[in-house]
Design goal:
By secondary structure, this protein is an alpha/beta fold. It has 7 helices and 5 strands, in the order βααβαβαβαβαα. α2 packs across α7.
C-alpha cells in the first residue's frame, strides 16, 4: 500500500469523468498541473446517475473518524447530469427535482458538520453536463434531448447558488465556444455526448479559473501549496536525509 504522503483532488462523476484520464482529458491535465503537490483520484463511473452516486460516495469518501488515516481531499469535483437527463423510461433517468436533491445531498455530506463525512478541509466545485449534439449522438436505444440536458445544466447552477458552491458551467462554455450552434459542438464532443481533448481543455480551464478566483489557496503556482518534497537543488547533498522530509501545505 502506498503511504499517506500527498493530499488529493477527487473527481466524482459519470463516464465523462471516468474518461478524464484519456489523452488530453481534464484528469490528466490536473495531474500534470498539480504534480508533486496533490494527487488526482478519478472516481468516474460510466453510466451512473445521482441516485446511484450517493451509495457509492458513501464508500469512496472517508468518514470523519477515518480521515486522519488517509489523504485529505483538498478539492472535490462533482459532475453528474448527462445520464440523469436521459428521457424516461430509461433506467438512467432521474427527475429534475430529485436530481437537485441528490446534488445537494452529495454537497451536504461533505459540508454539513452533522454529517458522518464532514470534511472542512474539502473545497467543492459542481460541474454542469455539457451540451449534447443530437446530430452526432445517433443512439435510438439511449437517446438524449438537447433542451433537456440544458435544463439539467441550469439545475446544477441552482444547486450551486443554494449550497454556496461554485459551478463550472461547462454547458455554456462549450456552447459559446461552438458559436451557440448544436451542430458545431461536434468540435468538442467525439460522439455527441462525451468530450474530446478540446472539450476537456475547456473543463480544465474553467476549473482552474474557479480555483484561482474562489479557492486561491489551492493554486498550483503562487498559492499556499508547495512540492511535498523539496526540489533537489535545495538539498544539502552532504547530508540530505534531514531535508528529505514531507512538507505540509502552508495553510
Amino acid at each position: 500500500m502506498a503511504a499517506n504522503v500527498q493530499d488529493v483532488i477527487m473527481l466524482v462523476g459519470d463516464s465523462i469523468t471516468q474518461n478524464g484520464w484519456e489523452r488530453g482529458g481534464f484528469a490528466q491535465l490536473l495531474a500534470e498541473r498539480y504534480v508533486r503537490k496533490l494527487d488526482v483520484l478519478n472516481r468516474g463511473f460510466s453510466g451512473y446517475q445521482t441516485d446511484w452516486a450517493i451509495p457509492v460516495f458513501e464508500q469512496i469518501f472517508a468518514k470523519q473518524h477515518e480521515q486522519h488515516h488517509v489523504p485529505k481531499v483538498k478539492l472535490l469535483t462533482i459532475w453528474f447530469g448527462a445520464n440523469d437527463a436521459a428521457p424516461a423510461p430509461s433506467p438512467q433517468h432521474v427527475p429534475r427535482d430529485r436530481y437537485k436533491e441528490n446534488l445537494s445531498h452529495l454537497v451536504q455530506m461533505v459540508k454539513s458538520p452533522t454529517s458522518a463525512y464532514y470534511s472542512p478541509d474539502t473545497q467543492i466545485i459542481l460541474i454542469t453536463p455539457p451540451p449534447v449534439n443530437t446530430k452526432q449522438w445517433n443512439r435510438p436505444d439511449n437517446p438524449r434531448v438537447f433542451e433537456t440536458t440544458k435544463a439539467y445544466a441550469e439545475d446544477v447552477k441552482e444547486v450551486g447558488e443554494k449550497e454556496n458552491v461554485p459551478v463550472a458551467d461547462i454547458w455554456t462554455s462549450i456552447f459559446d465556444a461552438a458559436g451557440r450552434s448544436e451542430e458545431k459542438c461536434a468540435k468538442y464532443l467525439w460522439d455527441g455526448l462525451h468530450l474530446n481533448s478540446d472539450g476537456y481543455n475547456i473543463v480544465f480551464q474553467d476549473v482552474i479559473d474557479i480555483v484561482e478566483r474562489v479557492y486561491p489557496e489551492l493554486k498550483a503556482e503562487g498559492g499556499k501549496l508547495q512540492d511535498v518534497f523539496i526540489p533537489w537543488r535545495e538539498l544539502n547533498v552532504q547530508n540530505p536525509r534531514p531535508s528529505l522530509v514531507k512538507r505540509n501545505a502552508r495553510f
